[in-house]
Design brief:
This protein is α+β, with helices and mostly antiparallel strands and 246 residues long. It is built from 8 helices and 10 strands. Strands 1, 2, 3, 4, 5, 6 and 7 form a 7-stranded antiparallel sheet that branches. It has a 3-stranded antiparallel sheet with strand order 8-10-9.
Length: 246
């Protein structure tokens, strides 16, 4: 993990208009009592923190892609969510307890550590309210994934995952028409959706033959948005609201 303490990196940050960043930058500009965010770089495969470790920091992903994972006692991995630029990490109910999850960089990433964040929220109700909204959106996404894992077939699960990631990446301006970066491999998809890698492989081939989507060279292309959306139904409407809020 490489650290950069320069204070002017916020000005050129591609995520400084998203999530909590506008409120934090406003406070840092107006008040001189808070420390400036610190910037860290992670290489693909490096961990920001491990499950069971204690950390007291609050993070915002500036660039890259991070996976939030949990390992069960029998060694199996469950991917909880993909963290994209502007998303937050490190917040949990017991702020002084061991981390519930691990956070690992899926690709080279830049992370901002925000000191005194809770102090900022205590002195700025608008920032605190924004945090509540973001946490509500993350809870909604987790609930939608849980419902899909429990009650959908593999084809519908992958359609849901492809569309929700496409929407979030498009909101961040990371799309080229219906193509977005997609660094997850088939094992990552399987560990997110409760499937086997073999089942994921077969289902992706089926979706490609149906001209619905294609994964190629770490990119996802949606070939027929309307038909793919029809597999998912109305569930993603709530995610559109979350994108507006973020």
């Amino acid at each position: 993990m490489k650290e950069n303490n320069e204070v002017d990196f916020c000005d050129n940050c591609p995520a400084n208009h998203q999530g909590l960043c506008p409120g934090i930058l406003k406070i840092l500009t107006q008040e001189g009592t808070f420390h400036s965010p610190k910037q860290f770089t992670l290489s693909a495969g490096q961990y920001l923190y491990h499950q069971g470790e204690q950390h007291l920091d609050f993070f915002i992903l500036r660039e890259g892609w991070i996976l939030i994972t949990i390992n069960t006692e029998d060694g199996k991995r469950q991917i909880i969510r993909s963290v994209l630029s502007g998303d937050i990490l490190g917040l949990q109910p017991d702020l002084h307890g061991p981390s519930i999850y691990s956070a690992v960089a899926l690709q080279d990433s830049i992370i901002c550590c925000v000191p005194d964040f809770l102090k900022m929220c205590s002195r700025n109700p608008k920032l605190a309210l924004k945090l509540v909204w973001i946490e509500a959106c993350e809870a909604t996404l987790a609930e939608l994934y849980m419902a899909n894992i429990a009650h959908r077939d593999a084809r519908e699960k992958i359609a849901f995952m492809a569309l929700e990631l496409f929407q979030r990446l498009k909101f961040r301006g990371l799309n080229k028409d219906y193509t977005v970066p997609f660094p997850l491999n088939q094992e990552d998809i399987a560990d997110t959706l409760g499937l086997t890698s073999i089942h994921v492989n077969r289902t992706l081939h089926k979706l490609q033959k149906e001209n619905l989507l294609i994964l190629h060279k770490h990119e996802l292309t949606i070939l027929d948005y309307e038909k793919l959306n029809a597999l998912v139904g109305q569930e993603l409407k709530s995610m559109k609201v979350c994108n507006i809020l973020n």
